[in-house]
Amino acid sequence: MRRQLFATLLAASCAAHAALPEPIARLAAEKGIPEDAIGALVLRGDQVLVSHEAGRTFNPASTMKLFTTMVGLDTLGPQFRGRTELRTTGEVARGVLYGDLVLRGGADGDLTADAFTHMLEKLRTKGIRKIEGNLVLDRQLWQPARNDIGVPPFDESPEAYYNLIPDALLLNMNLQTLDITSDGKSIKASALPELANVRVRSEMTLVDTDCANWEKGWQMPEYVRSGSRLTLVLKGTFPRNCSKTNVVNLMDRTDYAERLFRATWERLGGSFTGRAIEASADQSRAFNSAESTLLAEHVSRTLPEIVRDTNKPSDNGLARTIFLSLGSLQADPVLGSRPLQDQAGSPVPGGGEDAPAPMTTQARAEMVVRNWLRAQGIDDTGMVFDNGSGLSRIERFSPQQMAGLLKAAQKSLWMPEFLTSLPIAGIDGTMKRRLKEGPAAMRARVKTGTLKNVVAIAGYVPDANGQQCIVVVMVNHDRTGNGNGRAIVDGMIDWVARSAAP
Questions:
Q1: Long-range contacts of range 479-487, CB-CB < 8 Å, 24 or more positions apart?
Q2: Tens of pLDDT along 26-55?
Q3: What angle in degrees, to the nearest 10, is found between the helix axes of 65-76 and 361-375?
Q4: What value does the CA radius of gyration of the chain take, rounded to a whole number of Å?
Q5: Which of 104, 199, 347, 478, CA to CA, is 20 to 30 A from 42?
Q6: What is the pTM of this model?
Q7: Per-residue exposure over 44-53, b if at least 16 CB sit within 10 Å of its own CB, e if not
C-alpha cells in the first residue's frame, strides 16, 4: 500500500503541469537565475501544486539533515543515547589504579568538558587518586576510527566548528573558546577549557576598523610545540577597543584529550604518570570483555533532544554523529554480526580476527538510510550520500525524494519529535530572521540549507486555510549568493502560505 501510494504520488508530480508560480518565475528572472537551476515540489495532501524539475537531483546543502534525523528517529528510536565510559582492566589498591584508564567512546554528542569533569569526580569518589598507567582513547566504535585524518579541508576555514568531523570519542568536540580583547595599544587573549601546558599568544596586528567586522582580519592560528608545551599563536589583524569570542577546532585530538585530562585530574587532586594513546581494535575488544571494570560513565540526552539541536541551528557535527550511529547499529551483511551499539548507546564488539574486512561505518549508515527509504516506497535512484549533514559538494537528491521523506514522516510515530526539530519561520533556528512578516511567520516549519552556489528549503507550510503543505525548493546556481537564492525559496514559502484550495 505504501509503495503504491508513493508511486502514485511521484507519477502525479511528474505528469502534472504545475510550473513555477508566476511571482517565483519572475523573481528568478530578475535575479538572473535560470528556471532549470531550480527544483521545486509543493504538495497539498496528494494534490500537486507545484512540480518543477522535481525528478532531477540537486545539491541539497543542509536539508540533507532531514534524511539523517528522520531515519535516525525511526531506526534508533527516541530513547537512543550516546554513551562514554571510563574502564580499566587494572587493579585499584590503596588509592592507586595499577593499569590503564580507558576512555571509551560511544557517539556521545554531549561529552562536554563539564561532563568529563563529572566522570573524573566519580573516580575520586571511588578513592582513586593516582593512575599508574596510560589514558587509552578508544574510538573504535566507528570504522575508520578517525574519519578526519587525511581529508582535504572543505573550505578556507578548517578550524571552524561547522567543519568539525566527528569520531566516536569526541571530547568537548575538540574545541577551544578564545576570548580576545583589545584596547588602543595591546591585545589580550585566553582560551578555555584549561589544557595542561597550553598557552595563547597573540601576534595579531591592531587596526582601526569596526569591531563588528573583526572576522575580515582573522587568519587561522597555528600551534608551536616546545617540548611538552604548546603555544597557540593568533594571526591576522584585530580592531582596537574590541572584545570578541571565537570557537575553534585546531589541536590534535590525542593531544587535546591528554591535556584536558591532565588539567582536570590534577585540579581534582589526582596524579597521572602515563600518557594518552589510541586504542587498537584488539584492545577495544579486550576493554569490552567481562574482565574490564566500569568505573564511570556519561550518557547523552535522548535522540529527540539531539535531533532538535541538530536541525534548529543546522549542526553538522551532531548530524554526522547521528548518521554514523546508524552505521554502528547496522549489522554487516557479510559478517552477519550483531549491532555494534545497543539501544542505550553502549558499544559492543562485532566480527572476529578471521572475518572479512567489514564495510566502513559510513557505508553501513548509507545502507540503513536507503533500506528505510525503500521500505517507505521511495525510489532512491540517483541519490548520493556523503556524510549525512549536507556539508558536501557531492550529496544529491531530488525534490520528489525529499517530499517522499516528508510525507513518510507524517505517518511516523515520531512525527511530533521530528516536527518540533524544524526551525520556525520568524521565530528560531536558521529561520529566526526570515519571513518575520507575512502569513508564514510562526507557522512554517522548514529546514534550510546553504552552501556556495546552493540554497534550499524543505518542510511544512500551512496554506491560507491552515492545511499543511509539503514544500521542497532547491536552487543550484552560481548566482544564489547575495540573497538571490534565499529570495526565491522564501518567496515560495510565502506563496504557499497565501494560497488556498479552490
A1: 479/31, 479/32, 479/33, 480/33, 480/453, 480/454, 480/455, 481/452, 481/453, 484/31, 484/32, 484/33, 485/31, 485/33, 485/450, 485/454, 485/455, 486/434, 486/450, 486/455, 487/27, 487/31
A2: 999 999 999 999 999 999 999 999 999 999
A3: 80
A4: 25
A5: 478
A6: 0.92
A7: beeebbbbbb
